[in-house]
Q: What sequence folds into this?
């Protein structure tokens, strides 16, 4: 195939690149349009067998790098992270798409149509898995999170983890691309189409069924965020004023029937082992009260932790955040232990970024958690995205989530990922109270872990051998 583009081919190259860029711009980032994520790779996959490999690779890179700049304001302006982090955040998916397109193209050139259809999804999932294991941000950036508004789709995470969602997102466009590929065989087209339709139908059928399973119980939960002042010392005038405001507001939630109340991450800084006003309120109102604390009581280790006050316990239950935000939480020592509250329902504790990682979900699923209480602190613009990342851990692990974020979203979600109540604290104080559905669920993903990834890696090895098999 010619290494230069004629005018007609150049027009096709520009159109395909632009369409994929637009699809990725609007189908990814902090507020994605979920249906566009399915279509974003299609134009460059369509292009791949029609141009030289270098042009196919360039189209893939330009499309997803350009589309990835939808995150510039979020990463640069809101979070203020360095360019050494921004470049891989934007360029990583672009490089991944380059590898996906090149493998897809090579298999087509070998006459392996079905393999070419499977290759993009298989390679993409493998790359996402490796990234999640190496990145200090865990699964952040995984394209599965774009589908959080597509409830039947995300139910597959209860079986495969979020990896199954990513797989479907690449399988459909690649199966469509081979249907019109000039190098595809008729038999290969039929096989690829049948495979995509079958897997899609099974996933949607399972998801629709799972959403109809009734809850076994409900629990009334309140969430509350008072935005200012930020992390005052508890014994300061500002801290005492904020404490009094919280006590009053929590009382109102209790009047509305809340049995559990969660307030945001590091709402107060203190070296004391308890907050007497919260302990008294929990006893008087028969509440479980989860409060985020910047704990300075250990001279050897400052901790980002929660104190959970319960009606019948003198001392609060505590949990220290495991996964700290690089560059922002260097003063803290990470926690090592998991914490379940006594009694029923089975309630576990986590904090904000912990929910970006699978170890937290696996640990609490193994402990039979029905509900996780998650104080958090977001960056205003990413409230929807970061909240939905936590919600997907609940789908994978089979537990509901009560998450209260400063500068983000307050969300109550069941173990199907259904948000039953939500309020925004992105620019102001917020509170809510709602009835949270609970299930007794042990998901296949909780029992078998990343089995789908290991299967995916085995298939990828077979595809690579096929792609470079001697003629």
A:
């Amino acid at each position: 195939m010619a290494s230069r583009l004629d005018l007609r081919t150049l027009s096709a190259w520009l159109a395909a690149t632009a369409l994929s860029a637009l699809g990725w711009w609007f189908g990814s980032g902090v507020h994605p349009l979920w249906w566009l994520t399915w279509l974003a790779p299609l134009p460059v996959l369509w292009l791949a067998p029609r141009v030289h490999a270098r042009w196919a690779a360039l189209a893939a890179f330009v499309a997803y790098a350009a589309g990835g700049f939808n995150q510039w304001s979020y990463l640069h302006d809101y979070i203020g992270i360095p360019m050494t982090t921004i470049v891989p955040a934007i360029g990583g998916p672009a490089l991944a798409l380059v590898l996906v397109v090149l493998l897809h193209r090579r298999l087509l050139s070998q006459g392996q149509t079905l393999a070419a259809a499977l290759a993009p999804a298989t390679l993409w999932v493998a790359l996402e898995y490796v990234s999640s294991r190496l990145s200090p941000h865990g699964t952040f950036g995984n394209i599965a999170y774009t589908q959080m508004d597509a409830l039947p789709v995300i139910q597959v995470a209860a079986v495969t983890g979020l990896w199954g969602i990513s797989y479907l997102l690449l399988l459909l466009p690649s199966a469509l691309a081979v249907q019109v590929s000039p190098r595809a065989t008729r038999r290969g087209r039929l096989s690829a189409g049948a495979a995509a339709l079958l897997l899609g139908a099974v996933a949607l059928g399972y998801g629709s069924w799972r959403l109809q399973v009734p809850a076994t119980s409900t629990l009334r939960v309140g969430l509350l965020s008072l935005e200012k002042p930020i992390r005052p010392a508890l014994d300061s005038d500002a801290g005492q004023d904020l404490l009094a405001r919280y006590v009053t507001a929590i009382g109102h939630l209790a009047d509305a029937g809340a049995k559990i109340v969660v307030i945001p991450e590091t709402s107060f800084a203190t070296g004391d082992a308890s907050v007497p006003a919260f302990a008294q309120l929990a006893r008087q109102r028969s509440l479980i009260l989860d409060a985020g604390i910047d704990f300075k009581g250990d001279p050897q280790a400052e901790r980002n932790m929660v104190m959970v006050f319960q009606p019948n316990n003198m001392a609060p239950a505590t949990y220290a955040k495991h996964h700290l935000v690089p560059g922002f939480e260097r003063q803290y020592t990470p926690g090592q232990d998991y914490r379940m509250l006594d009694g029923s329902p089975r309630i576990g504790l986590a904090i904000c970024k912990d929910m970006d990682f699978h170890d937290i979900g696996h640990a609490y699923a193994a402990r039979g958690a029905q509900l996780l209480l998650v104080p958090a602190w977001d960056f205003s613009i990413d409230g929807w995205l970061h909240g939905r990342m936590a919600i997907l851990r609940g789908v994978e692990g089979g537990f509901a989530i009560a998450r209260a974020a400063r500068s983000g979203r307050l969300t109550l979600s069941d173990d199907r990922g259904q948000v039953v109540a939500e309020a925004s604290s992105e620019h102001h104080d917020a509170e809510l109270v709602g009835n949270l559905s609970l299930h007794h669920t042990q998901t296949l993903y909780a029992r078998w872990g990343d089995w789908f990834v290991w299967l995916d890696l085995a298939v990828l090895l077979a595809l690579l051998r096929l792609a470079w098999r001697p003629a």
